[in-house]
Amino acid sequence: MGFQIDPNRRSTQTPSGKEPSSQPPAPGADRLGPPAAPTGGGGKREEAVGPAKGGPSRRSADLRTYRELAEAYARSGSLSDAAASLEAAAARAGSDAAAFYREAAELRERGGEYGQALLDYRASIELSAASEGNDLPALERHLKYLSMSLAGDESPSHLPLRSEPRPEERLAGPGGGSIVGASDGQRPGASGLSVPGGIQMLAAVAGIDESLLRGEDAVARLLSAIQEVAPIRSGKLEDNPLRRALIEHIRNYEALLQYMRKKGLLPEGFNRDTGQKLIFPFAGDKRTLQRTARLLAFFGVKLRHSETKNGDITIELRLSESSKFEPRRRLMRQMGIDMGEHGLRELTVHLRDDEFPTFLDGESLRRLVLGGSKRQSRSHLESLLLSPRAVALYLALSSASEGVRAVLVSSVPPERLLEMSDTLAVFARYLDYRKGGPIFPGFERAWQDFLGGHGVAPEDLLVNLLTLERGRAAALYAGLTMAPREVQEYFTASPDRLRQAYEALSASYSPRPPSSDAGMGRQNLGRLLRQLTVTPGGLSLNLDSRFKDHLLPGPRQEHPQKGTSYIQLEAQDLARLAKPGDADLRTYSPVEVLEFLCQLYRHNPGAWDRNTIDALMTDLPGSPVLMDIIGDIDPGPEVLARYITYCRQLIGQRNQKWNVNRTRTSQALFYLLSLLRREGSLGADEARTLLAGALRRMESEDEAEFAAGIAGLLSEELLPALAGISQDRTDPLLWALAGSVPTREFSFEGRRLALDIAARRMDRMRGAVMQQRFTPLRKMLTIYRLLDDLRSGRGDAATLRSELASMLGDVQSAQITPDTPKSQRQSMVWTDIEGLKNRLLETRERPGAAAGPPQTAREVAAALHPELGVTLLAYCYAYHGSPEVDALAFDVNFVRKHDFGATGARKHSWVATRLENRSELGTYLSGSLSGIDYELARLEVSQSHGTMAGRESTLMPTMLVGLRSTPSALRSDRAQEFVALAARLGREVLVLSALNPELMQWCDGALRRLLPPQRHERVHSLLVRSKPSAAAAAVTPSEFFFLGQAYLESRNAKRTEARTGNLPEQAGGPQLQSTNASDGQGPSRGAFSSGQRTEFSFPYLTRLEEIRRKAEETGEEDFRRELEQYGMSLRRRLAMRRFTLHQPEPYEYLEQNLREQLLFERMCDLKVQLAELHYALGLPAFVVEADAEPALREILSRSIDEGAGDWRQTLQRIARLRKHHVRAWIEEALNRGTLALVDETQGDRGEQTATTQRN
Predict the structure, then answer these.
(1) What is the pTM of this model?
(2) Which of 357, 391, 420 is the C-terminal boundary of a domain?
(3) Which string of DSSP letters, residue by residue, matches 985-1023?
(4) 20 to 30 A from 946, CA-CA: which of 150, 697, 1227, 1245?
(5) Cα torsion at 887, 888, 893, 896 (round to 10°)?
(6) Considering the domain boundaries, does residue 1228 fall inside one?
């Protein structure tokens, strides 16, 4: 059905040239009727919109006035008023009206006013219908999209995963019609799983929010919660307290019903499904009291009723002390019966069973859970919980697509399916089965030959894939699913090559589930294959060929000084690269380190020569930590080799002599230089120069010379470099860490606001370390300057001694008393300041001492070195800390207790920071400074959320660190607009694909790279059934962005491939062409190729291409870095404080990784959602500094018991954020002082102040 326009419609029907809308207003839209004209300069509306008087020159002047007024409104953030001004101008613009309506429509659409935007677009098209260049064909699809969006919220639906469309959901269809869709409800053949006692009571026992157990995935959520407590490895109930509590609850409830039925306490015709409320009073006739007494007897409560002669009634309750009644009394409390309630007059008992929806029909469920037995003594839910294999199988099948589930349940005997539960738990989510057979990555013929030859039934191919050597073939399938298309085709070009890859996997594959330390959670074959590419020479690794001598040891090869080629691989090399790491999750597995190397090399390929590579590869698992400490500095090969060698030297000496002091000072200084570069306070060349200078001064083996050298570097090189940045002469380093961003101003809904990012950070950093005992840097450097004068003989020695002794009184060391335990003395840095003062004031030198003052100066300089290190370390804590961290606020020695001598399983590597807690020492951090941001965020979150257990202790700090890690200088309006428009483009492409088969074909192929088979199958099914709103509900904001970006890149594939080098598919998305899968020569059904491209036009495309074109003209690398800030964090994945926009793995694949932070770092959806909201409200990108953390609190405000740690619930809350939330956050920021109102009487200072940064 096409979009229809009434040819008889007159543009003068309303003052704005548009006819009134018959559509209902969209929720959240300001209005759908004709816009009111803005007030003119004299305040009389009729003067602004009255008929034009005078000639063309007068009309032209009036139109200019309207346009200037619209621009002023837009600058002030009032997009609706700006659009209204343009609409008023259109009413008097004559032949130019179409252009004004078009601009007004774009503003309305930007602000989410889709109804008014649709009217403006229609008016623009009608008025320009007779002119050349009529863009009706280009806009037709977009207008359909707006029509379909009218029944939604402020923006098209992108609600939680797996949600169903709302009943009677209306999607405005083409031509003013409508597509009516109702909830899918139960799938055909699906059945329910009876819940004895009801969902509410079961949720209370499990400690799960009841709402989470009302959806179609309720059983999977319940079983997942059980597995999170402790993996079910045996039938012993004591191994898992939650499982034991649930089974106890079900059994006691069943026992209660049986008891009440036996004692005649249930009414006649009682139905468990409909339920009933029963009242058992404590007063009444004898028969009534007997019924109450019988009920209480079940719970071990004896009721005695007595009545005195004068009529006074006494009720006495006695509780049995027998332990057998304890479980029953827990049931009583779960039913809401409180025997201790004051004035209790009756017992109210609610008896009712509910149902969990399941994806299995009743017969299939009975066969899988009960093994075909016809026993009815137990509920199916109890039987399911009692069987560890059944639990694992149900969870595995819940992650599979409906096509895969149907084949497995119908084709595989229950007992065999239960035996496959471990394999299915890992690989079911990767399997795709559509169009009557499995969808294989790469060429289908190779897989058919490998799995049994041609002629094998499709369902047998799937079973063979899962059962071959306990799932090893499925591991290869899963790995290739994540690989680039050309790598898939390389390994499946022939059965022999596929078999070689299979054999190579044997050395590293473990059939154990991902919850085990040696299972697939540590292998990550897919991550390895994503680093490969195919060149004319064969398979290659995206890494300089000089790394091969270390990654694949063999005869040493000669390579050119500057590497120009990648590492060429054979299929058997996969076994050596994909070997699993050790079980210590604090270290990185070989595959993770390999991914780290590839990312590091891509980021700075010029930093690597033979010496640098040899130094880095000496201890490969420890390399990510070393590089993270200087992560924002890009040193040259010589300096990088010296840095790595120096760090290895510190690691090798461990706790010898003063090496701990040297390690503390060195790491803190390296880390501070990196942070200063990150904030733009140091330029790239300045940071490299300072790093080289620090390494030179650190060569000394004498502690006094070492400390004096570092103090000299700080005084003579670092602080002068910061002189132009700092506004605080008392503490220039802290100010420089706050960043070089000046106060920025912006207008929002008629108010002029200011955001001082640097001042806000300064307040946070000062508050974070306010209670810590450390000496400010200025004072420490002054002391070392005086010590240098004393050592070199400059000035009077006695005067210098006296001045130094006085200044030592300002040194804040740890407070140590004679009663301080020895363990605490040894665990923190402290200096005997009084002893140093006495040493300085001695009139005679000790016998045998060298020349007096120089020796004294050396001794004091060495003794104060730990304090210098603590001072530098305190600035690192301040940068990432917060006043809300109790350890910083109440433990004055928290910074001093940092243990730099801690190591992981590998004794010769630095490990990432980790949180420790010991009874005699309290809370402290240990390890290197890599990852200190995350651990301090954990402490901050633990105070605000009151717990350190469960997923939220990982989710909240991971997202908080991701938001805070973006440098302010990289928050640009062009990047925000690009992300917002790309996400809108992706949403529009998805919705309109329901109306166009060709667009659906492209969209189907693109989504296959973004979504797992289960979610992809669901989206495709909903689109085919013309339910685009429900389909959009299964896609997250970030996935919409990647979809829109893929569509944009598909129009310029050649340019994209040239820009992205060897990763064209990840950045540009897939292209789809039809293939004949039946002969096995082409790619498997639904596979990707670089064939035909769609050429649909969308309004967003023009602006997106314009932004990219301008970025190429002004510096594409800068724009790429700005865009990457909206991507996935690499902090935990690769120990790098960077982000990437390469298409990540789907959430469901990351869900089973041992490091759940990888899943949570994938959640860049909040940044994408905020970009859309800010763009819709006309807010600049830097406002995210003020409202990002309130947004995070909004989506994670609930406690862990309510499921806030579940990634699906988190994405649901992100999708629910709307413009009114942003308005509330702005008000909150004003109340907190984060934002300030600008005094308008001081004059208009223009738009936002430009960001300054040293490059």
Answers:
(1) 0.84
(2) 357
(3) HHHHHHHHTTT-HHHHHHHHHHHHHHS-HHHHHHHHHHH
(4) 1227
(5) 100
(6) no
